[in-house]
Write a structure and sequence with these properties.
Helix content is 27%, strand content 26%. It has a 7-stranded mixed sheet with strand order 2-1-3-11-5-12-9. It has a 4-stranded antiparallel sheet with strand order 8-7-6-10. The protein has helices at residues 13-16, 20-26, 57-70, 90-97, 120-123, 186-196, 220-234, and strands at residues 2-8, 44-50, 75-79, 83-85, 103-105, 107-109, 129-137, 141-148, 152-154, 156-157, 161-165, 201-203, 208-210.
């Protein structure tokens, strides 16, 4: 499987190489120095990293998707730089998921009500949540956040990890570059666009650690982005 990894980071190149994404996907815990492990003999992994990023990450993600289409990749993976993939079988799991689905994530919801606060887990009822992601706790431990049963077809997925089946993409399915924030609402907006164009989304049991406390401050950038998102999707 030919895979293109896309990531935006606020770090420069040197500090990006210290991130969980770099260590686990490009040179570290799982991937060795390229293709060292038998697990990866059938995988061709390339990466396009935007360092020192201060723009809507959808702009970079669209470049990654367009490149994936133009150069005939099988899969485009879009992920945060604080995600550590801890699953030697993740490529095989994606192959299995792509037999039926077009976009694969780690956490999401079967349905949502578009409303404030515009966060996927708060727009959804808890019984509609799906997936699991580990988070650090107590310094040297991890805690598995179990959202709900998976695999499960979802309406929205969390943007910490999105794997896109490139052959399913149509021109209309891209990220909204007009969202007025660097990293708010781009994921749920993209997922709703995917559904609008009949792509099927799902969670899948790919094990990862999200080394982030999550959204801690809903500042003005979040407020502006939320208004844009709500105006866009409540009009449709």
């Amino acid at each position: 499987m030919k895979i293109l990894l896309g990531c935006c980071t606020k770090h420069d190149r040197e500090n990006f190489e210290k991130t969980p994404t770099y260590k686990s996907m490009l040179n570290g815990f799982l991937h060795g120095n390229g293709k060292d492990h038998d697990f990866y003999e059938s995988m061709d992994l390339d990466a396009v990293i935007k360092t020192n990023n201060k723009e809507n990450i959808g702009k970079h993600y669209n470049k990654v998707l367009n490149m994936a289409v133009d150069e005939e990749y099988d899969c485009a993976i879009l992920m945060h730089d604080d995600v550590q993939i801890d699953d030697y079988s993740w490529t095989y799991k994606l192959r299995e998921a792509f037999r039926e689905y077009d976009v694969v994530g780690l956490a999401g919801a079967k349905q949502v009500e578009i409303k404030q606060p515009a966060l996927w887990h708060l727009m959804a009822k808890q019984q509609d949540w799906s997936g699991a992601v580990a988070h650090p706790v107590n310094g040297d431990q991890i805690f598995m956040t179990n959202f709900g049963p998976m695999p499960q077809r979802c309406l929205v997925l969390d943007g910490l990890f999105l794997a896109v089946k490139v052959s399913s993409l149509v021109d209309e399915v891209r990220f909204d570059e007009n969202l007025p924030a660097i990293a708010h609402h781009y994921d749920i907006d993209f997922c709703l666009t995917c559904n609008k164009h009949t792509l099927k989304l799902t969670t899948w049991p790919i094990w990862a650690i999200h080394k982030s406390p999550g959204l801690q401050d809903r500042g003005q950038d979040f407020t502006d982005s939320e208004k844009y998102f709500l105006d866009k999707w409540t009009e449709n």
